[in-house]
Amino acid sequence: MINQFEISNYVKKQIQTYLSNKECDLATAMNDETMNADVAAILHDGFPTMVKKIYSLPKFQSFFWEKRELLQQHIANRLAAADKPRKGK
């Protein structure tokens, strides 16, 4: 599911601000259960409304915690991709 969505610049800034305020990096945040849930909530908030209704925040937070090892690099790559301008636009 997560492959289908890009991370917007707004969400990226929210995550960067959160990590900066916590004085940690993404890997550290994802390995802490509370911070992991916070990052998941930030990402979930950036999803389209239809997806948020189908895939609830608690369900997404649970998924995000259980699959944190797999998702950490994927999320880092998505955040880096948000920096790159889109082709054709």
TrEMBL record:
It comes from the Bacteria. This is Uncharacterized protein. It comes from Alysiella filiformis DSM 16848.
